[in-house]
Design a protein that fits this description.
Distance between the termini: 59 Å
Radius of gyration: 19 Å
CATH architecture: 2-Layer Sandwich
Number of domains: 1
Structural class: alpha+beta
Helix content: 10-25%
Strand order of the largest sheet: 4-3-2-1-7-8
Strand content: 25-35%
CATH class: Alpha Beta
């Protein structure tokens, strides 16, 4: 029997070069006036870029730190999450006694998309309203660390 090449049938590869890895976090503000998109891209090549609106700042980001981010994602079962958590479903009882399903689309809400690329594999998850909480907490941590690194890298 051959060794598995991926984690599950549609999962990430089990072996890949670190320089083929990137993790991106994109915050879309929704329809708020004056709000800017924010995107953080971490790469296995040792660099990162934080973009706010049209302004971008690059900074060093060690491969070991990126591996820590990947471990955090594995720890919260990121690769098992559906791609779109912004859509919400509920059921209701119809007058005829049957159960109907409705879909609530949160198109006007601010949302965050986290994408992981490993060689030719890519997984993106979009969420809103800080759910799932574990992913939202990891994203807040990454954003705070990026802000600190950008501040430290800014000439005084």
């Amino acid at each position: 029997m051959a060794a598995e090449a991926t984690l599950g049938p549609k999962g990430p590869p089990l072996h890949y070069p670190v320089d083929s890895v990137s993790v991106s976090v994109r915050h879309s503000p929704g329809p708020a006036l004056g709000a800017q998109t924010r995107e953080l891209v971490l790469t296995g090549a040792g660099s990162a870029k934080l973009t706010r609106g049209d302004a971008a700042v690059s900074f060093d980001y060690a491969a070991a730190d990126l591996v820590g981010v990947l471990n955090g994602l594995y720890g919260l079962n990121y690769f098992d999450l559906p791609a779109d958590l912004v859509r919400r479903y509920s059921v209701f009882l119809k007058d005829d006694g049957s159960v109907g399903t409705s879909q609530l689309r949160l198109l006007d809400r601010a949302s965050t998309e986290v994408c992981v690329r490993m060689a030719s594999y890519e997984k993106c998850v979009r969420y809103a309203d800080d759910e799932p909480a574990a992913l939202a907490a990891l994203v807040r941590q990454l954003d705070a660390e990026a802000d600190q690194r950008v501040l430290a890298a800014t000439p005084k």
